[in-house]
Specification:
The chain has 229 residues and is an alpha/beta fold. The chain has helices at residues 10-22, 33-42, 59-69, 83-91, 104-121, 151-162, 170-178, 188-200; strands spanning 2-6, 26-30, 47-50, 74-78, 96-99, 125-128, 131-134, 139-142, 145-147, 168-169, 209-212, 216-219. 41% of the residues lie in helices and 21% in strands. Helix 2 runs parallel beside helix 3 (59-69), helix 6 (151-162) packs across helix 7 and helix 6 (151-162) packs across helix 8 (188-200).
């Protein structure tokens, strides 16, 4: 799971990145408010850990923008310890509020609780045309026929289906599925898409995974082309 930490203090930021990374999370860290907001809007995170006192944009401003565009869980981690600060953060839409200095064990427990809530909220079944994906049972079928996928193929298809109609860049796909930075010299994404198509698209007349030249891929239902005379 991916966590974004927006924290301007270098010592605290490094501590959080190291500790959360060792706890099994992929962590991005920003020390500037505007940069943190950009990352939160341009990427898909499972949780945001947000300070209040930040350069550029403060945490309140970031929270206001995020709640207009995203339902990503947000935990305020800040030295602002007054009751009115806690109330303000929660009224803006934060899911939790923890005051510095803090116990990393307590922070980790709160993060795990928020992430569990997010998993519960996530759709357990995803359907696109005649393609069905069962998240909990990790099963995929089309026209009632079960399709065997590897773990990465399942993760790739889940990403494409839950963001139906969105053009996803190779960079985003590589980050979400492989947790890696995309290298233009590698064709790992294209190869994975080709293998996935061979299983979920090629045996069927109506194709659902489409290439957007120069950008990436989109998963959506389109009218079948007319049959050749």
């Amino acid at each position: 799971m991916r966590i974004l930490v927006v924290e301007d203090d270098a010592k605290t930021g490094e501590y959080l990145k190291k500790g959360l990374g060792e706890s099994g999370y992929a962590v991005d860290w920003s020390q500037h408010g505007a940069d943190g907001l950009y990352l939160a809007l341009e990427n898909r995170y499972d949780l945001v850990v947000l300070d209040v006192m930040l350069p550029g944009l403060d945490g309140w401003q970031i929270m206001e923008v995020l709640r207009k565009k995203h339902d990503v869980p947000v935990l305020f981690l800040t030295a602002r310890d007054q009751l009115q600060d806690r109330i303000r953060g929660l009224e803006l839409g934060a899911d939790d509020y923890l005051v510095k200095p803090f116990s990393f064990t307590e922070l980790l427990l709160r993060i795990r609780t928020l992430l569990r809530r997010g998993v519960v909220r996530e759709a357990e079944q995803v359907q696109l045309a005649d393609l069905h994906l069962d998240v909990l049972r990790r099963k995929v079928s089309r026209q009632g026929l079960l399709i065997a996928l590897t773990n990465k193929e399942f993760a790739l298809l889940h990403l494409l289906m839950r963001r139906e109609g969105e053009v996803l860049s190779r960079t985003l796909i590589a980050s979400e599925v492989w947790d890696m930075n995309f290298d233009s010299d590698t064709n790992v994404v294209d190869v994975a898409i080709k293998r996935l198509r061979a299983k979920v698209d090629n045996p069927f007349p109506n194709k659902l995974i489409h290439t957007v030249r120069g950008i990436g891929y989109v998963c959506e239902e389109r009218p079948c082309p007319p049959a050749a005379p």
